[in-house]
Amino acid sequence: MHRAERGQGGRRQGAPAPGVSDVTSETSASVNAQSRATPSASSSVPSSVSPGSQILLAPVPAHWGAWQRSKNAVLYVLIRVGVAVITHVPYHLAYVGCLAIGFVAGLLPLADRQRAIRQLGEAMPELSRADCRRLARQMFMHFARSLAELSHAARFLRGARAVHLSSAQRELVQAAFAEGKGVVAVTAHIGNWELLAHVMAVEGFKVSSIAKPLYDPRLTRFVDRTRTAFGMRLIWRGDASSSKDMMTVFKERGMLALLIDQDTKVQGAFVPFFGRLAHTPTAPAAFAQRFGCPVIFAYGQRVDGRHELHFERVTPPLASGDEEADVLALTAMLSARIEAAIRKHPEQWVWLHRRWKQQPPAPAAARPT
Asked: Is there a contact between 246 and 23 (Cβ–Cβ < 8 Å)?
């Protein structure tokens, strides 16, 4: 694991330990009240997402002007039509079409492409400039393949080409569920991460994940239908019931899957990532500490045209008596595992994301924010 966290600044004087409530806009009082509830027996159908989600019922924003309404309406229709086309044409045509788009995107002087090249060089200085450009091109091709696969997801979830957990992986996950405390699954935007979530749901595991609403409520509803088509449940960040929904996952002894490899506006801490400090969500570690539930690190990568899944039961560091330090240590441990996975196939990660956007104020370098 990377170097110690407290030695780089420890926690702020008088700052509270990182809590799970800041994953959403709910108050910590609401989370604490839910977490004290006695776990009930698992139900056959998880109810971890409230049917009256305000996020999914939201209308088009009233502050949009006539031009913005028209523009976003056109974009929405184009997205729906594009998805419909690649979904209904034969897979090989969708695959070739998506690859063509990915190839062009990898050559255009886009700001995202330039950012990806720059961040590749900063994260892995051993790479030459040519290597970084090549990996950036391959990244866009990887995204294109993933889009084609998701447009024909049933092909990879059922039938001859279906992606399955190995018997050892299934036993590992089943053993975690058998402890009866719920499961925290940590993953990242590695490989085809959406396909991994679908695989878990199709295998029969009760999986819920947290998602950020899109700028257009119509797209949010469309994404919700698409991502939940195979049984995964979504909890929308910012929803009035989101904290309650997350607590319900653990009450029902389900699995909450969280991606922690992006710099987002949630409770987090600065931990090492590719030799630099990166603001990383602490929710998985906080949940594991609060409920004493098992933690599984999982990801998939495309290798020689096939998807290889990786599952690992993560043992948190020994409790130190300092809750904040323990959350920080587990977060750093999980971040190190994500980095190791990315290094295996760097072209299969989202290098265009501003991963190091936030930086800690000097000199305190590894304290919760």
From this structure: yes
Q: Which are the contacts of 298, defined by CB distance < 8 A and separation ≥ 6?
A: 185, 186, 187, 196, 200, 309, 310, 311, 312
Strand partners of residue 234: 209
pLDDT at position 6: 41
DSSP state at residue 64 = -
Quickly tell me which residue has 């800690």 as its tokens. Answer: 360
Q: What amino acid is encoded at 59 in this protein?
A: P
pTM higher than the cut 0.85? no
CB within 8 A of 305, min separation 6: which ones? none
Return the DSSP state at 113.
Answer: H
Q: Is 239 left (phi over 0), alpha (psi -120 to 50) or beta?
A: beta
From start to end of the chain, where are the E strands? 183-187, 207-211, 233-236, 255-259, 268-273, 276-281, 295-303, 306-314
**Is a pLDDT exceeding 80 seen at residue 2?**
no
Structure tokens at 271: 């931990």
Which of 85, 86, 188, 199 is closest to 145 using CA atoms? 86
Whether omega before 363 lies within 30 degrees of 0, making that bond cis, reads yes
Domain positions in the chain are 66-348
* Residue length of the chain: 369
Most distant CA pair in the chain, distance? 60
